[in-house]
Design a protein that fits this description.
69% of the residues lie in helices and 0% in strands. It is mainly alpha-helical. The protein has one domain.
């Protein structure tokens, strides 16, 4: 079994005792909390990051690809938009480029060779996590930008979920396990590697749609408010 940043894959009866109290990580989360202390969305994002990296989800994601799927959804579709809401962009952005970059980053890290390397090397692991989070924050900041077109933002929110769902579908229907990092540990949890992989893909395909749906509602409400405001101004 590979030993990732979060430690070796835990056995089922040891999962809830497996917390990651890395001092450097805790200091980073504390610093982020201080920076974002005036922004409720930012504080919520810090809480999500704590779940992803401090809670037992961290070592569990070393054992199960399905847990890694939850981990990546939390980063890309929950923590990232919360951070973007806390520090929104003020100018009218071009959403196509950050959408393309965040999509390529997400898909690239699910290439088996890149994924397995990330789980076997701490430096590459953090490159994976930071690039996923940073590219997603860039995308969501453009979506929520004050001067962004609500129509464009809504279209790219739908596209963002579509590309994640497509990746999830590819993983769900893959006929064999793709990741060497998860070839052994799933058996300890009573699940085969291919079924664990399919479950992870399903998580990225279906439940991941919830935060995208929430974002779509926020963008649609903003667009409706802009229309109402313009209508009132013209009267």
């Amino acid at each position: 079994m590979n030993a990732t940043y979060c430690g070796p894959p835990p056995l089922p009866d040891a999962v809830w005792a497996s917390w990651n109290f890395d001092p450097a990580l805790l200091v980073a989360l504390l610093a982020l909390t201080l920076v974002l202390r005036r922004h409720p969305a930012g504080l919520a994002a810090v809480g999500v990051l704590a779940v992803a990296f401090v809670s037992p989800l961290c070592p569990l994601s070393a054992a199960l690809f399905s847990a890694r799927g939850v981990h990546h959804v939390l980063l890309v579709a929950v923590a990232a938009p919360l951070l973007a809401c806390a520090v929104p962009s003020l100018r009218a952005p071009r959403i196509a480029l950050p959408f393309a970059v965040s999509t390529v980053v997400l898909w690239a890290w699910h290439v088996p060779a890149a994924y397995d390397l990330a789980l076997a090397n701490v430096a590459v692991y953090w490159l994976m996590q930071l690039s996923l989070l940073a590219s997603a924050v860039w995308f969501w900041r453009c979506v929520f930008a004050q001067e962004a077109s609500p129509i464009d933002s809504l279209a790219f929110v739908v596209a963002g979920f579509a590309q994640m769902g497509m990746l999830g579908a590819v993983l769900t229907f893959a006929p064999q396990p793709l990741f060497a990092a998860h070839l052994a540990a799933p058996f300890a949890f009573g699940i085969s590697p291919v079924d664990d992989q399919a479950l992870g893909g399903l998580i990225m395909w279906v439940p991941a749609g919830i935060p995208y749906a929430v974002a779509a509602v926020i963008v649609a409400r903003r667009g409706w408010a802009m229309i109402a405001h313009r209508g009132a101004a013209s009267c």
